């Protein structure tokens, strides 16, 4: 039905309208402003650029270029081994099928990819990917995809999930490539112990890390129960009396200043998860700036922290201005800015279940990281380049899985969260990593893990944390296979010589250090050398082992 709006004179009661308007559902009002007579006809369906055949073909070819570059396929015939060649769009109504130019065998270009068995036109894939890259940092929701492409919501939802898995594959390759580049650039780099770091870090990559909470549990979602604890971890879980299930999402942010960013959905903001994520993303020698929540990073010689709660020395002020940027130039503002982008982007969703939080984080991370790889960005958008000159984007059938369950986040139960609360000194390693070490050192590592999994003493935990912190400070300050004097090291690290000697004797007992001790006239000389091993958490104190929180 056509909508007709009549003309009315502004500010004056007009005569009664034409009787033909009385039967219309758009009743006449003498108080309407002056309009010109217009006619509006609703279109039959939502108009989309994909409805234009030349544009649709261009996006179809772009999707074929993306799939053939990132997930290359070829025929197994003898001629294809020498000169692989596929012909696309030769079968009517089968865009995903290619033919071998030698033996004419049919090959599916979407098999063993995130787009396996997709029934939508291929043009929808590249069109949506391009739109997502151009809209960053705003996220493109399933409803927006459905509205732009004229699809049902459920179809748009699963299309977005496939694209998120696709982005997760590419983002993992970017993470591995970045790790190699950082490891090479900061191989023998050491920060000075004191002084301004700005000149030292002029041409060095600086990593930042922080954690942030998304969609915290409100009082209404918690059945009007107040939380017992007030930390960030407590805000994502419901009260224990109603099940303690996870409602919000806790995100660990790791980024390079002026470079890439990676997000990880974690269940607890403790050493076990934060340290594991850092080891997978940032090499040990890279400069890392954080706040004071990362005091457990003892084995990173270039780690510096800034105190956000620092008080001012001037009695006129409460907080110090060095709580954001210290006098040495240490600042974690890069991580705070990334958290701000993350929260702004996730406003479009309204809410995301923790189960699919990692997929959404991978998507946002990749859309931000693709800017630093121009060849990949040109491939995914309508750029000029059709080949990727960065990294290795060729995936095997096992890696190119299209199963969503592989990327689903598994929340912890109340019992599992309680189990991780006090386990601060358990080592993270593969069995093959410690098999190359001597028997005494292997036994010490296994004994440490066994003790903290089955026993607990609060005083011993406190002492072991202090001993391990001093041991890692000593280990990161020296080089292996080189003799040192304990007096000079104690002066440089501002540690007690007796503490250093105690740690060295434990290392000698475990077979990872050599010590020479001799008494001179006025002092005792201690020379030591560390073997080329990786230091793990060990037991240094000599407490008696008590089981079940102090009960024998």
Protein architecture, described:
Helix 1 (53-70) crosses helix 3 (123-135). Strand 4 (97-100) and strand 5 (106-108) form a beta hairpin. The chain is 34% helix and 11% strand. The model is unreliable at 1-14, 385-399 and 547-552 (pLDDT under 50). The N and C termini lie far apart (85 Å). The longest helix is centred in the N-terminal third of the chain and has 33 residues, at 153-185. By secondary structure, the chain is an alpha+beta fold. It has 5 domains: 1-42, no CATH class; 56-73 and 109-171 and 353-384 and 392-410, no CATH class; 74-108, no CATH class; 186-351, Nucleotidyltransferase, domain 5, CATH 3.30.420; 422-530, Arc Repressor Mutant, subunit A, CATH 1.10.10.10. The strands form 4 sheets. It has a 5-stranded mixed beta sheet with strand order 8-7-6-9-10, with helices on both faces. A 3-stranded antiparallel beta sheet has the order 3-4-5, with no helix packed on it. The chain is built from 15 helices and 13 strands.
